[in-house]
Design goal:
The protein has 9 helices and no strands. It has helices spanning about 1-5, 10-30, 35-80, 90-110, 115-130, 135, 140-165, 170-195, 205-230. The longest helix has about 45 residues, at about 35-80.
Length: about 250
Amino acid sequence: MNTYLSILNGRTAFAIGISLIVSYITMTQEFQYNYDLALISIAIIFPLVFTIRSAFRRREKALEYLSQFKAGLITVDHCFQDNKKIEADKKLEIHGIIRTIPVSMIDYLGPKTCSQEKLNEEIQKVFLFIRQNTEQIGNGTAIKIFRFMKDVHESVENIVAVNNHRTPIAIRAYCLIFIYIYPIIYTPALYNKLHDGISLNESWIVYLLSAISTFILISLYNVQDQMENPFDQHGLDDIRLNDFKLS
């Protein structure tokens, strides 16, 4: 049940509260006008759908970069482990270093606090290990590892960019403001359309339709807001960061 209630928050209560207050004023004052509701719907739904699609694309890109990041580290680890010239204790040492990198990445992206500098320091330990053990590793293997580490670096920078740069803030602010204004425009027009066939005892229809339409819009906004940061582990569709740890 908590899964379905996760999209409910203070914004939901505030928006529905506005719709109920506006419905009460509209019914008691009999305030109504004839207005094409399709225009206001387009003004809200179109940018709202745009932001949801943008957030979903960011999530898909983040998954792609995280997969490249993990694959690059696995390949680098294999290069070290398959090298017969490297001693067993050195292989164990570099394996521990490589395993620490995705942990630092998850701490950087997730709820825990870890700076990008700390993450870069963990990655730098791989290059330091190569420098200290060049004779055992060999130049050919070192060059191969550098190429794979380049892919790791690129994926890290892409993930950092996805984490720092979100969908346009102005559009999201526009959507939220118009969702709050929506009942003020929608309810009198709804009352006008229903006026001929509604009695005072059936006024609950105006309350219900106004609240439901507002609830749909604010819920869509909440879904987009949760998907906006796919790393914080607060939304239903957040990326399972632990899947990208090395076994």
